[in-house]
Design goal:
Blueprint (H helix, E strand, L loop, with lengths): L2 H13 L13 H4 L23 H7 L2 H10 L14 H4 L19 H22 L13 H12 L5 H8 L5 H4 L11 H5 L2
Helix pairs in contact: 7-8
Length: 198
């Protein structure tokens, strides 16, 4: 099967192969006898030069009526303001229009991204301070919980029916931490197998 077509393809490929000459061809006498043309005179074009005197060429160039008309229609141009908190351009310019100009960027005190970062830093500092105070006399209990402590507190409250104060005392939590988890049913323990239907 297919052997006949394969033999035909091989025969056609062999016949179509390129054949190279066995000896080098003799050089072309016309290409070897080319002589470069004799050098001629070198001509340099007249170069324009700077002049401190205004001549007729400059006046003609400056008298373009279309260009002058478009400049007059534009009038005096004020540069566009630079919208950056670090720019000194906005503070130097005064609002001459009489209308209040909207602030492009929120200030650092009202910037939501900066507020989030500030809150995160405050929480990190409070958690580190709590961790350093743990085990010392006068420690009131943990208020920053990990997943394991939250799960234990929920199981004690929901499955065992323990009181909030008893859970806080058993787990070493600050007063009111269990109440902040919400009432029963708001936050609960869900196993992965139960959530997947297994």
């Amino acid at each position: 099967m297919g052997s006949f077509s394969s033999k035909a393809a091989k025969t056609a490929a062999g016949a179509a192969q390129r054949q190279f000459p066995k000896t080098a061809s003799p050089p072309n006498p016309a290409s070897t006898s080319m002589v470069p043309p004799p050098p001629g005179p070198t001509v340099y074009p007249k170069q324009p030069h700077a002049n401190s005197v205004r001549d007729d060429t400059i006046n003609r160039d400056a008298a373009d009526p279309d260009f002058a008309r478009s400049l007059r229609s534009l009038g005096p141009v004020t540069p566009s303001p630079t919208f950056s908190n670090s720019s000194v351009f906005n503070s130097a310019q005064q609002n001459t229009s009489g209308y209040p100009q909207p602030q492009m960027f929120p200030s650092a005190a009202t910037n939501p991204a900066l507020q989030i970062l500030d809150a995160r830093n405050r929480l990190t500092d409070a958690a580190e301070a709590e961790f350093s105070e743990m085990g010392r006399r006068g420690f009131q209990g943990k208020q920053f919980l990990d997943v394991v402590l939250i799960r234990q507190a929920l199981m004690m409250r929901d499955e065992k029916g323990m009181a909030d104060t008893e859970i806080e005392k058993t787990l070493g939590l600050k007063n009111g931490v269990v109440a902040r988890l919400g009432r029963k049913g708001t936050v609960g323990d869900v196993s992965v197998e139960g959530a997947l239907g297994g």
